[in-house]
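Table 4 source record.
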Amino acid sequence: MAFSNLRALSFIGGADIVGSIITSVFWFFLASQLPPDEYGEIHYFIAIAMVASAFVIIAPQSSMIVFSAKKLKLESTFYFISLILTIIASFVIMILFYKIDVVFLLFGYVLNILAIGQLLGRKLFSSYSKYHLSQKVLTACLGLLFLQFYGSDGIILALSLSYVLFIIIAYKEIKNTKIILSSIKSHSKFIFNNYIIEIFTKLNSNFYKFLIVPILGFGILGEFSLAQQLVNTGMIFTLIVFKFTLSHDSSGQENIQLKKVTILISVLISILGFIFAPLLVSTFFPEYIQIIDVVRIISFCIIPLSFTKIFTSKLLGNKKNNSIVWSKIISIIVFVIIIIVLTPEYGIIALAFGYLLSTIVETICLIPNIQFK
């Protein structure tokens, strides 16, 4: 691997590893302090903001990375359209849920996704690491502070305030670059497909929460959210590599060896998760002892999720995203069917197997579109 690539990867990797450690410790500490139902309720409202962000961001992070890498100067236009849609979505959230903190969190997600995509696409990896780490530190500090004074009710507001620094990037971009709505017309197909991909990605990650609550309640949602958080920690390395490879795949530079190493590491992490889940959960989360088998099952999701990220990087880099859309749709359908049919009888274990199966199906759907070397 070239020194410049290694240096760039170290900026992304260092920031992501440290940032993920900070936020993981924060969420794990929060789980240890709150009963499952309160922990689940927090994740329920976070899911609302996340899903809403997918609908309002006209150019998700992958699009921002690709267009910024290709120097097409569409960033300010994407900011403008997305923020207008965010304002509209805010009124809908207030009418349906009357939760101003969820509205603030939605704005935070929008600014974060667009700004991070811009920095990565322009290969400003040093700036990325600074902003990314600052947000994670603010998450932990504000989260602990608000937990102390407001309890679980203050967590979402604390999360929303952690994104305040990204206002700087958005303001500078909109101020210094013209907003030309007509400029996105020639790229409309790619933009629309990526937009749909992001919607189904967010639905795939969060829609089950809207089904679990009426079927099983906030308590089960809290338990499954903690299990998923443990697995997400195991995905740190893969996500670092994805952020690095997408901008390079967009520029025609493949990193085959790095991708192979990523798969090997994901297999190792999955095995370790399966082995050490009982010790980890029983030691640190005694109130969540019933998720031991769940963690062991979904630890193996790390393998197909890593394959999916690698395939997605290659396809998006070549602006071939139709298959990604369909893989997301099929994956969601599989998971939703399992939730509706099996969870009323088998509970959280059905959720675990459903989640694992849906990730495998998503990966399989992408394989026919990949040219292996």
